[in-house]
Structures are given as C-alpha cells and as structure tokens.
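Re: [ENG-882] Designed sequences occasionally contain unexpected residues at chain ends

Forwarding the minimal case from QA. Structure tokens:
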C-alpha cells in the first residue's frame, strides 16, 4: 500500500482472479450459468424472490419503469439530492422526472414534499437510499399505496443495508442495485433488479432480451439488448462471498470515524441507524471544498456530495428544495477503501481536527 489514502478503491484477491480466469478458460463468457448463479445469490442475500442482472443500475431503473409501463406523459418523483442517473433513468423511458426535496435526517425523499409534488400524471416514486440510509421507506410506501403509485427503489449504494430487519430494495415493487467499482462489492460495472412480483420479473427478463424469455426467435413484446456477462458474474460470485464481512467492516469503519469526530466543533456527523450500512462515512462542514483541498495536501482523498439535480444545466428548474440546498454544499465523503486500518482512520481524523482548528482561528487560511 502507498502512503496515499484513496477515497475508494476496489480490492481483489486470488479467488477473484481465478474465478474470472476459469470463466475465460471455459470460453463461455456470454450471459449463462454464472449469471444465473449470481442472480440467485443476490436474491437470497437481500430476501427477494427474483433478481435479474443488467449492465448498470441506471439500466436497472429504466427497465423497472418500462416493466411498470411508465413512459411518455407520465411523471415519476425523484429526490433532488441524488446522483443524476436517478433522474436520467426516468428520461430514458420518455417520462418526466419531478424533483422533490429530501428529509434532513435521511437525505432521502421527504414524504411531505412528495405529497406536494403529486399530480394526476404521477405514476411512481423512486426513493433513493442515499449513501445507504433508509429514506423513511415505510411512509413512502404507505403514501404510494394511498395514491395508487408504484415504487422503484434506487438502492445503488445500499447493498448490505437494512431497515428494521428488511433489506434495502425489497420494500417497493422493484429494487435496483449497482456493482460499480466504488460499491461494497464490484463486478467492474453492472446492476441488478430485484422483485417479488412474478409478472414484473417476466417483463424485466423479456425487456432485457429483445422481448423473449430464451434464445428462440419469438418476440411477443419489444425488448432490448441489456444482457450481463458471465465474466462479470464470475467476479460477482467471488465478491459476494466477501459481502457479509465487508458489511461488518463498514460498520466498524463508521464507528471508528464517528467516535473520533463527533466531539469536534464545527463538524456534524449525519445520523446512522442500526442495520444501515453506509456507502461512505460522511460529515457535514461549512466549507467541504477547502477541507478537501487541505486533506489532498496530506495525501488523503475525499469526495464532495452530489450537487442538487435542480442545479444541473440539463435539469435546471424552479422549486423549493431547502434541505437539498442546505445538505449538498456541506457534505463530504471520507476515505472508505476496504483495506483501511483504524490507524489510517486516526490519520484522517487528526488531519480534519487540524483543519478545523485552523478554520476557527483564521477562516480557511491554513
């Protein structure tokens, strides 16, 4: 390991390497038995009846909306504070993303803001498990039932995260996960849709495979080429064996950080509830870019929160988003690579404390 602390970096071992090499040696690298096994492993882990592997979580979200027959003329409510892919997936199917503010504690969709955003054209909600935190999912599901709406959970950053014993992505009609290189386990790229609804499962399978359920040339509906790959699945099958231990490690990592940082003046640690597994440990400070620059000078990499979607040039819109506008410019994600030691967390926290002391004394003059 170098002295540089990466904010996130994937970790592979010889078991991962051998799993992929065995797939290559077999020459069977298209979506086949390994993909089916990976789907079954994810379904078992999260407690869903069905899982379907796809090229990315963005595709998973779009396919979920297609399976619900959401498209042109429909509206889908998404949180203003999330990665832009959540809204992009709505546009992919021809529907309109409607932005709603977040709850300041969960940084997920706020049910009051959702209720105010409803119109006769609203068809679905996409609650995001922002950084792995539950977005008051029971309230949002109840609201959806009252108004006859579907729920597609964006759990891209929430594999391993649970709320009241139930896994993220299994509360609504469909749930979507990511296996990008920054996630708790990775296949390099890739996503997964989970559901307990057999009809939606069949539609997802057809939509990702040119409208068919197998490789026979019978196409009752229009579909697309959103196949996975057994190369990716081979890595996923190895990585998922590490997932339980990594969830425990993530819990310990957050504890190490928050125990050391909680008492520092000028810094706030967002709440973390039992069984929630954070994507990255995060903090709130008044000038994250300045702290980021300071830490970079000490070979410590961090990541700023996403900008609110309504501020993006492709989504510029008016609205009332006070909690998103407050949280976004104050959030900073700390180093979370799977090999970090408690001593390295000490190094990060000591540097943050040093910057905070300079901040109080000389207003970012350090």
């Amino acid at each position: 390991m170098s002295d540089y602390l990466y904010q996130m970096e994937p970790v592979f071992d010889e078991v991962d390497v051998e799993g992929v090499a065995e797939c290559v040696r077999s020459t069977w690298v298209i979506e086949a038995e390994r993909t089916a096994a990976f789907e079954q492993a994810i379904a078992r882990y999260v407690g869903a009846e069905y899982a379907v592997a796809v090229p990315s979580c963005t595709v998973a979200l779009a396919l979920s909306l297609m399976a619900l027959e959401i498209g042109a003329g429909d509206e889908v409510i998404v949180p203003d504070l999330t990665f832009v892919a959540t809204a992009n997936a709505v546009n992919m199917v021809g529907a309109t993303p409607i932005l709603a503010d977040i709850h300041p504690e969960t940084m997920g969709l706020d049910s009051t803001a959702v209720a105010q955003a409803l119109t006769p054209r609203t068809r679905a909600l996409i609650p995001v498990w922002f950084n792995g935190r539950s977005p008051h999912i029971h309230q949002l599901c109840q609201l959806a039932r009252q108004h006859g709406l579907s729920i597609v959970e964006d759990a891209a950053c929430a594999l391993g995260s649970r709320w009241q014993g139930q896994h993220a992505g299994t509360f609504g009609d469909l749930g979507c996960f990511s296996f990008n290189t920054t996630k708790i386990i990775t296949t390099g790229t890739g996503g997964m849709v989970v559901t307990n609804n057999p009809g939606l499962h069949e539609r997802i399978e057809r939509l990702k495979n040119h409208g068919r359920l197998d490789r026979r040339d019978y196409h009752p509906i229009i579909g697309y080429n959103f196949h996975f790959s057994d190369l990716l699945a081979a890595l996923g099958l190895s990585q998922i064996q590490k997932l339980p231990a990594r969830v425990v490690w993530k819990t310990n990592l957050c504890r190490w950080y928050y125990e050391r940082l909680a008492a520092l003046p000028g810094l706030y640690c967002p709440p973390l509830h039992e069984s929630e597994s954070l994507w990255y440990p995060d903090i709130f400070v008044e000038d994250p870019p300045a702290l980021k620059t300071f830490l970079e000078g000490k070979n410590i990499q961090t990541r700023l929160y996403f900008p609110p979607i309504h501020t993006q040039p492709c989504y510029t819109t008016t609205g009332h988003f006070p909690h998103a506008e407050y949280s976004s410019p104050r959030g900073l994600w700390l180093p979370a690579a799977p090999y970090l030691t408690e001593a390295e967390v000490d190094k990060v926290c000591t540097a943050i404390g040093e910057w905070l002391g300079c901040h109080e004394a000389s207003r970012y003059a350090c």
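QA comment: On inspection the terminal residues look reasonable. The mean pLDDT is 95. Proposing we downgrade this to a documentation issue.
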